[in-house]
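Figure 2 data, in text form.
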Amino acid sequence: MKKSYVFNTLICCGCTALIFLLHFIVYGGVLLEKPLLIGIICAVFIAAATGRIGGSREPWFPPNHIVTRLCQLIWCAALGTIPYVLCIDPYSLDNWIVFLLWIAVTVIELVHREDNSAAYSIAMVLALCVTGAFLLVVHPITVSQAQGIVEQAGYTDCVYYKVDADGNLAHEDGRPDGAIIYVPSPESGERSDYYAFSANKDGEKYGVLVSYFRGTIDEEQKQGV
């Protein structure tokens, strides 16, 4: 493998690692709505940066072949729907990353078909930059900041729980087999926009929901009642 391929692959791996470090460690698994999808896309870009896929190759079908035209139509239609999704859900980091990488693939295929390893690494750097810009503009709070808010409200022994988006439960450290607390859905937002904590106050155990975007306690539910 060429040194340039190794360098570009390391860049892609580093950018991917930083994005998922932010998702799982800093933001408690709530930064990305679909981490598996983003992970698959990043894996494809890493593979492309190694030169294992892409690179110098002939198109599968001639430029004017009906299959080529159909694929181009589907590709452009998908690209056109992403801005609409961004308009209706601008607070989803997944949408911004997918939009950027989709454009990157389009440009790479049109301009850098012959030698695209560096182009894929640049695209991953841009995805990391988009992540940073999203955090600066939206400014969601981290898990540690949310825990500090709970403790300032007079709670002790705070333990982070990952909110179950499909029910009124939260799991300790996001593990499905972990301990469970009951926290009803707030009316002010989606459940995925919250951190959940198990905490004690005045000798009672509570389930507390902290808004991921606003940094406010929106729900306090006494446990075992």
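Caption note: Strands lie at 156-163, 169-172, 180-182, 194-201, 204-211, 217-222.
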